[in-house]
Amino acid sequence: MGTRRILTYGAPILRQPTRRVTDLDGDLQRLIDDMVETMYAAPGLGLAANQVGSPHRLFVANPAENRDPAKLLIMLNPELVETEGEILFEEGCLSIPDFREDVRRARRALLRGIDRNGRPLEVEGEQLLARIFQHEMDHLNGLFFVDRLSPAKRFLLGMKLKRAFLDPKT
Ligand code: NI
To answer: Is residue 7 part of a domain?
Structure first.
């Protein structure tokens, strides 16, 4: 087990849709363990595989501040099957350190996928958990929370992001 480096805004793999997991082999199990450790060390509430450079469609999350192991969620091949309501709340991302913005998300979300052993997994989240689900699903589809902002906000933020992550020397 170990932590892996978290890629930041500008890394090409973060803009690529991830691929469905088919092999639940030892390499994948190690990746999952490393992702959990990396998420806790960051610390963060969720982490998608492409954030540590893996093309697999999977994320880990734990909304509990005390890292209650019972709240740890490991989801492979997740699909967002249902959403409801709307809520505006501040959001950040381990791949965009020091940037936080209010993002509009569904209040409730239902996810369907499989666990690390290949068993069907269905999880419903509200509020914070629903937000984490939608944030991680965005990552797995090559998106960032900043893509959800209004065009005007995105334009202003885009220049700051460019300066912070894409060409920091200019
Ligand atoms: Ni993120």
So the answer is: no
